[in-house]
Amino acid sequence: MHIDPLEKQWVQIALGICAFFIGIIMLDALFHNINAPSNVETIDSARLHLSEEFAEQNLGVQVDGEGQVVVRMIAGRYSFLPKEISVPAETKMTFRWVSSDVLHGVHIPMTNMSTMVVPGYVAQVETSFPKPGEYPALCNEYCGLGHDHMWSKINVLEKDEWQQLQLSMNGADNDE
Ligand code: CUA
After folding, report:
1. Is the CB of 96 under 6 A from ligand 1?
2. pTM of the model
């Protein structure tokens, strides 16, 4: 098959442009710590309240045995539970999201948090908040008429301030 040299040149230019844009996307993903969800973990969405991990008293912010901050949230029409949480700034933490009904999504502006919350699965994302302030956690998958009003407030506090708050909340049973 004969290909005209001029046509060949244009094919190369077109491929070059594609490679350029793919490069930009990959670099952007690298610098903003964006990656495909790799955590495949299933859960019974209809029995979350009976599950160990996502029972009501375990929701929200907790510090595990290794000092790692873990946040557990439930997405359901039309809110995230808890409605408001406080977390420390500049700290690596793990968010674990589950849905109690349909497909939802979570987006937290200014962070790498953007994931679908698929019923039956646990969506786990590691993130950190660069500076103190109020951040919204917004639903970004259309889930019904109340979709626009589905969000939670995240108070990001200075590390010291947050630690004080943790201590005062845990009271005497915290012997660290
Ligand atoms: Cu939940 Cu949209």
Report:
1. no
2. 0.79
